[in-house]
Structure formats: structure tokens, C-alpha cells
Amino acid sequence: MSKDFKNGVELGLANDSGLEIEIIPELINQGQIQNVSDAINKLCSYHDVDILTGIVSSLAIRELLDTINAKRIPFIFNNVGEYVPSKRIDSPYLFHNSLHLWRSQWAMGKWAQEQYGGTPAICFSIYDGGYHLHEAFRIGTLAGGASTAQINMLPLVPNQVDTSALIQLIEQQKPAHVHAVLCGVDGKDFIKRYKEAGFLGKIPLTACPFLVEDGLTSDIEDLVNNIPNSISWSYTLKSMENEAFIDVYEKSYIRKPSVFSVLGYESGLAIIHALSTAEAESIALEKTLTDTRIRGPRGMVVLGNTSASDEVGVYFRKPYTEEKSPVNKVISTLQSVNREDAQMALVAENGISGWQNPYLCI
């Protein structure tokens, strides 16, 4: 993850600007609040950097807002968008570049409800339930016409992978469709049990994109075909900017880019533009970032404040098997919302249920 992000930043900075730029890396481990705080203090006080960027959860940023404002150094923080951005983290020094996964979950909920109708069931683990993703999907189903939804959280059993409790709930509830906010070994176990129970192909299933993401479906390749999902960037997105980015990235690093490569690349492009503008016009760097608009692999990205990247599209996908491995194909663009939506604003400012942690949703 960190290597992909660093590669992306370097590639973005490589766009010709005539500026000499030095990158100073600082390890933050898994993004724990204290690690991020220590890194910010060292980079600003000892290295005297001009701008900060990295992969940091919005939850950690919220706890570090006073530190960031005191340093008065612009900070482009990147993440997958596991939380709806709270207005409590608005700051003239903070710029959010994100996949805004909560937006794609809302869009997926609305699409699924309009497609299948009835009462949906949303299944997730305690860990995955610590984010806003299941709630965003639920609110999306309401926008699509649902009157209620079944909320199924997997009981926490230490050192054990067993999603059979979710399967039992589905058997009892008989929902019109199911959405899985699961990833990793829990997600794979759920998909296998879903098929064994006879639900696959019978009860429509949608999923959080990382459950069916290209390269993450070992052991379940034959089970994820045609499972609808949505995200704001995909390797197969057909655009001149995306295809050019993929070409130069793969030639430079001999590997496929990930979503973190894209976030890094966009941040690098934004930094180049902001530094060039600040030097040419003799204005503060945070002011140039506020007005910066870049066109990257997933379209137009605006870093004006913590919610400006809401302008990025949400792409509807389904995986299809190619040469034994499923590949997600972009089918269409979905309607979504931003944090100004009344219901999403409530989600952003209210408490968080489930597993409480500052780590990234991956």
C-alpha cells in the first residue's frame, strides 16, 4: 500500500515543472494517531517541509486537527473514504484526496434497491462495521425506495473465521437482496458459504468493491463473476487519462497500479501545480491548493476542502473471468451524493458503531 502510494506520488511529481523537489519519507506504521502525530512534528519541526501528504484515516486526522492547524503546513491526506468527512475536520490547511468509498456504497444501495426492490439485508463483521460503509448503503436503499433494511453484524469470535451466523440470518429473513460489506478472509468465507447455502444466483448479491477487487479473489475466482460493485476508480476505466497513467506506471514500476497508486499520483499532480502556482504568483501554498483542479486517471479532482473530491464519478462494475482471473469491467456511472446531503451529514457528525480504530479501511 505505502509503496504503491509512494510510486504514484513520484510519478505525479515527475510531470515537468522546472522545480527541484525533495521527498522526505517518514514511517507511520499502520497510521495510529501517535505515530502520525510524531511524523508530523518531525517533518515540520526538524525537516522544515513545505507540504505534507500521506495515507491517513479521517478518524486520525480528526484527533490531530489542533496539531495540524498549529503547524500551518498544508496537508493532503489520502484514504479510501471509509468515513463520511466530518465538518469538524475542515481546516484551511487540510486537503482530502479520497476514493470516498461511502459515496460508492450509497450509490450501490440506491442501484440495488431500484433493481431488486423488497427488503435488503446488509451483512458485515464488527471490524467492517466500525466505518460508515454499511450505513451509507442503507441510506442509499432508502433513496431507492426501501422502507427498511435488515442489519446483520457478524458476532466477534477471536481467532476464528466463520460467517455461518450471517448465512443463518439470511435463511431466516429471506431478504430480496443481500449486500456484503466484508473483506479479506471473512469475505471469502462468506462467499463460499453463500454458494453452499444455495443463495448464489438465487438471492441477488452486491458487494463492497474490495471483496471482489482484481487480484484479491484467490480461492473464490469462480464465485465472484457478475457480482455488482462500485468504486471511484477502476483499472479498466476507459479514459485517455487513465490509460496514459496505467501505461507509464507499468513501464516505470513493472506492476499494475492500485487505488493507492492513483491517490498518490493525483496528490503528486496537485503538489506540482500548487508549488508552481505559488512560486509564480507569490501566494500562500494553501491558497493555491484550495484553487487547484487536476484531471487524473479517474477524472476531475478538486482539493479545495475535505469534501471537494465528491465531484469524482462513481463507477458501476461487475467482474468477469479473463484468463482464469476475474477482472472488473466498468459498465456505467452511478448517481451519488455529497456530505451536504441531510442524512449523510448526520452520519458524519454522529458516533461510530462497531470496531473503533483509526486504521484505514482496506
TrEMBL record:
Protein family membership: Belongs to the leucine-binding protein family.
Keyword Signal: yes
Transmembrane feature ranges: none
The protein's name: ABC-type branched-chain amino acid transport system protein
PANTHER family, sorted: LEUCINE-SPECIFIC-BINDING PROTEIN, PERIPLASMIC BINDING PROTEIN OF ABC TRANSPORTER FOR NATURAL AMINO ACIDS
Superkingdom, natural source: Bacteria
Keyword line: Signal
Residue stretches making up the Leucine-binding protein domain: 19-303
